[in-house]
Each structure stands twice: as structure tokens, then as C-alpha cells.
Amino acid sequence: MVLVVLAGAGWLAAPTFLPAFILGIVTVGAGWFLLAPGMGAGWAASKLPNPTKVRALNLVAHTVFALGMFSTALLIR
Fold this sequence. Notes:
mainly alpha; 74% helix
């Protein structure tokens, strides 16, 4: 629903991938700057032995999340 509020109700009638992708990538920040430090992994997993791999996988996972939002919007339009 956050995506619909931000992109507007018209997005549901004619969904495009870009708003979903932007929201998906922006939500990575919550994991990097709230979740990871809270779990002791440091900012953006900087204290882990392989922070670059973790960051890349986070970006991939949130891109898949964006694809899911976009696909769902296509199905329900």
C-alpha cells in the first residue's frame, strides 16, 4: 500500500516497474541502517567478514521484492 500511496492510485491502473524498483531499493536502507546495526553487524553489514557480498545479496533480494510488487499490480489491474 505504501507504493500505491507514493505512486498514486493511477499506478494500479497502469503499473510500471520504476516506482516499484525505487521503493524496493529504498527499503534496503532499513536493513542496512536499522536491522544490521541492531544485530551487531555494523552499518550496512560492515562488521561482517564479507560485507560486499551481503550488500549485493540485499540489493538482489529487494529487486526481487520490487518485481513481486510490479507483477502483483499487473495481475490485479
